[in-house]
């Protein structure tokens, strides 16, 4: 039984039990994390030309918004634009439990003369105490509230569970390298 509310669906990439396929002929925008463990095309069984996949750290919609608007209004002038957006956050995400202060402090250590520039960046962290359910719901709500979102757009939220084996592999490889990143980036 899922502990998540009905508007946030839990996907299980390992079993593929709960992973929805994009209906044939449908056009969707999938916003998800840039984490290499997520094979978006295979997981959602996407066909070529069926989706715009927008990836960034955490899969945050504010970061993807410019591309969402372009996808819906300008990219396919001879076809109807995408009217469905899937927001997919995932377990084991490096952005979970982070703060802007953490990123700014660590980056300022590397670039001490660029503090002002660094402080201007919103890294869109999934803050400590914020669950994946919270982050997905916040992004879905934020997107639905945008006046430039195409009228009639359906926005769905999902939580993708990284397969256990992959998560363990990632953890051990993190211990060997990536020291230049803040320690809390390696969940
Ligand atoms: Zn992630």
From TrEMBL:
<dbReference type="InterPro" id="IPR001765">
    <property type="entry name" value="Carbonic_anhydrase"/>
</dbReference>
<keyword id="KW-0479">Metal-binding</keyword>
<feature type="binding site">
    <location>
        <position position="90"/>
    </location>
    <ligand>
        <name>Zn(2+)</name>
    </ligand>
</feature>
<keyword id="KW-0862">Zinc</keyword>
<feature type="binding site">
    <location>
        <position position="35"/>
    </location>
    <ligand>
        <name>Zn(2+)</name>
    </ligand>
</feature>
<dbReference type="Pfam" id="PF00484">
    <property type="entry name" value="Pro_CA"/>
</dbReference>
<dbReference type="GO" id="GO:0008270">
    <property type="term" value="F:zinc ion binding"/>
</dbReference>
<dbReference type="GO" id="GO:0004089">
    <property type="term" value="F:carbonate dehydratase activity"/>
</dbReference>
<protein>
    <recommendedName>
        <fullName>Carbonic anhydrase</fullName>
        <ecNumber>4.2.1.1</ecNumber>
    </recommendedName>
</protein>
<feature type="binding site">
    <location>
        <position position="33"/>
    </location>
    <ligand>
        <name>Zn(2+)</name>
    </ligand>
</feature>
<keyword id="KW-0456">Lyase</keyword>
<comment type="similarity">
    <text>Belongs to the beta-class carbonic anhydrase family.</text>
</comment>
<comment type="function">
    <text>Reversible hydration of carbon dioxide.</text>
</comment>
<feature type="binding site">
    <location>
        <position position="93"/>
    </location>
    <ligand>
        <name>Zn(2+)</name>
    </ligand>
</feature>
<dbReference type="InterPro" id="IPR036874">
    <property type="entry name" value="Carbonic_anhydrase_sf"/>
</dbReference>
């Amino acid at each position: 039984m899922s502990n998540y509310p009905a508007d946030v669906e839990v996907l299980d990439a390992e079993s593929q039990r709960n992973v929805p396929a994009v209906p044939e002929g449908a056009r969707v925008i999938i916003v998800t994390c840039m984490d290499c463990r997520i094979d978006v095309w295979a997981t959602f069984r996407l066909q070529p030309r069926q989706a715009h996949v927008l990836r960034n750290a955490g899969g945050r919609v504010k970061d993807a918004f410019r591309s969402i608007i372009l996808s819906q209004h300008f990219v396919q002038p001879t076809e109807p634009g995408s009217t469905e957006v899937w927001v997919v956050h995932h377990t084991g995400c490096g952005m979970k439990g982070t703060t802007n202060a953490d990123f700014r402090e660590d980056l300022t250590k590397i670039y001490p003369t660029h503090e002002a520039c660094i402080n201007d960046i919103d890294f869109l962290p999934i803050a400590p105490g914020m669950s994946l359910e919270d982050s997905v719901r916040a992004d879905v709500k934020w997107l639905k509230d945008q006046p430039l979102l195409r009228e009639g757009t359906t926005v769905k939220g999902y939580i993708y569970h990284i397969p256990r084996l992959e998560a363990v592999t990632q953890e051990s490889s993190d211990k060997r390298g990536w020291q230049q990143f803040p320690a809390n980036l390696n969940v």
